[in-house]
Amino acid sequence: MNPDIPLQMLGGITAREFLRDYWQKKPLLVRQAISDFESPISPDELAGLALEEEVESRLILEHGERPWELRRGPFAEDAFADLPERDWTLLVQAVDQFVPEVAELLQNFRFLPSWRIDDVMISFATPGGGVGPHFDNYDVFLLQGQGRRRWKIGQMCDSDSPMLEHADLRILANFEQTDEWVLEPGDMLYLPPRLAHYGTAEDDCMTYSVGFRAPSAAEVLTHFTDFLSQFLPDEERYSDAGTQPASDPHQIQRDSLDRLKALLNEHMGDERLLMTWFGQFMTEPKYPELVAGTELSEDELLDQIENGAMLVRNPSARLAWSEVGEDLVLFASGQSRLLSASLRELLKLICSADVLHMENLGQWLADDEGRNLVLELVKQGSLEFADE
Ligand SMILES: [Mn+2]
């Protein structure tokens, strides 16, 4: 997409301007980001999802058995019958993985890397309902789907910000309001990480939260070094050949630190392994159990596609690709595969096409490496046959 075309989604500024002035920096309110927006799912359908075993959901009651009572799904069918008239909210995670029309909304965010997107959470709230004042460590776009919600924003927070005592929820003890707006269907509010916010329903309402993900520095270091260490032989150790005689054998000299830093830098600076780890880490599925492959032979794959079968990306899979030296690498749901540069267009196709079929896949199935890639992705579960 052209980053210099003004977008209605961003209130008439370009993706370039949004990324320069707002992304990760400050909030942006967009009235009618999507005009005449009609929520692709109803509150009843959302409640229905919260009954499903594989769906992650929560109910929060401001005046429950204790303040801000949290109940976790999956819920029984009668769970919604006894709820009070107001001041509660139902939150359902990753609705984009279960409702294709909700996944389609993500097309509006193609100016950001798809591997940065976490999920589309949808909340339904009765009047007064919300999750309390809080902050997140992630960027979020809050798109109003139905009814009206009042959003207040406040101070920038961090892990030292005082919280209410609560076993399950992170609710801010202090909220220093700086602004507030009432959002109507189609309105959208972008919030950068760590900005305090407090949303309450004005009437029965649904809000779509397009949430992003970024590994913490602690995660990057622990996970990358874990990954790296698999490739390091036990005999490779701290070494001090050529060291000087010690003036005091109890002192750790500065030159020891320099040797240690050289050892770290040699491995931490391995860009090939860093890219491989990062791609694998960022494409790990939110729910790995929903990416289950099927056994399939090459002949079966070809037969089916030649007979008109279509492949789609598993909505729970995550795909990305990258260049590593002269080669390409495809990351699929936490795994990586090194491929020759000639497969570039196939990788782009697999990552972006709505469906894969004989017409757009045909030439690649005649290529050994291409055919094998498609087969492996079906066996792994990142691609699956579309239901007719
Ligand atoms: Mn939030």
Automatic annotation (TrEMBL):
<keyword id="KW-0560">Oxidoreductase</keyword>
<dbReference type="Pfam" id="PF08007">
    <property type="entry name" value="JmjC_2"/>
</dbReference>
<dbReference type="InterPro" id="IPR003347">
    <property type="entry name" value="JmjC_dom"/>
</dbReference>
<protein>
    <submittedName>
        <fullName>Cupin</fullName>
    </submittedName>
</protein>
<dbReference type="InterPro" id="IPR046799">
    <property type="entry name" value="ROXA-like_wH"/>
</dbReference>
<keyword id="KW-0223">Dioxygenase</keyword>
<feature type="domain" description="JmjC">
    <location>
        <begin position="101"/>
        <end position="229"/>
    </location>
</feature>
<dbReference type="InterPro" id="IPR039994">
    <property type="entry name" value="NO66-like"/>
</dbReference>
<dbReference type="GO" id="GO:0046872">
    <property type="term" value="F:metal ion binding"/>
</dbReference>
<keyword id="KW-0479">Metal-binding</keyword>
<dbReference type="GO" id="GO:0016706">
    <property type="term" value="F:2-oxoglutarate-dependent dioxygenase activity"/>
</dbReference>
<keyword id="KW-0408">Iron</keyword>
<dbReference type="Pfam" id="PF20514">
    <property type="entry name" value="WHD_ROXA"/>
</dbReference>
